[in-house]
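Incident log, structure service

09:12 report received: a user says their structure output differs between two submissions of the same chain.
09:20 pulled the input from the user's history:
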Amino acid sequence: MDYEAAPRAFVTHRARRVARERHEYEIKRGRIRFLLLVVALIFAGFLLAFSIWEHIQALFGLGT
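09:34 re-ran on a clean worker, output below:
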């Protein structure tokens, strides 16, 4: 009779559960990093567009 089967199964299932939880946590972190990057790029794009628009107004005398 294999007396070590139950403890081995317990350790195996616990390791799988921990790995699954870690994987889910990393996916959530990845989504947050992606959203922060998108927000930062949109903000940078608006700053760049505003700066370019200011230069165009100054160059062609469009502003007040």
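09:41 both user submissions now match this output. Likely a transient worker issue. Closing.
09:42 reviewer note: The helical segments are 5-60. The two ends are 91 Å apart (CA to CA).
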